[in-house]
Request: fold
Amino acid sequence: MTAARLLRIGLAVLGAWAVYGDRVHAADRKVEPTSQWSGLLTEKKLTELVPAKGYVTSPAAWKKLWEAWRPGEDLPAVDFAKHLVLVDLGGMYPVAHELRVTDGGDLQVRLSPRVPGKPGYGYGISVVERGAVKTVRGKAIEPD
Reply:
């Protein structure tokens, strides 16, 4: 096979992927958080409170996280029967969650960095309705 023919085949494959590649996920629906916060933590020790699974499902875990990360602010009410709270670290940038749910109910999470106001450890928190969500990032939702 000549180099020119390989190049044409490669370009055809790339062109088809560019045109049709996103159609596999066309049925995914964008999800808007009901509430969202982001910020910077000043102490690295506070980053240890981020849940390994990426979310909290109980009032106790929510209260502990909120009071440590946003001291002095009133704890927002969350109905954990209807919602879950996503929590992620963003390195040195605060982050927002860009969310999509698949037809199968998997909540897919993409982090969108925000510009930091000062040095620290960035985080993002989002409250999401659980209605159509069966899994998060491909894994079953686990209670706290």
Remarks:
- The chain is about 20% helix and 35% strand.
- The first helix runs from residue 3 to 20.
- Strands lie at 29-31, 35-41, 55-56, 83-89, 95-101, 106-113, 121-129, 135-136, 139-140.
- The helical segments are 3-20, 59-69.
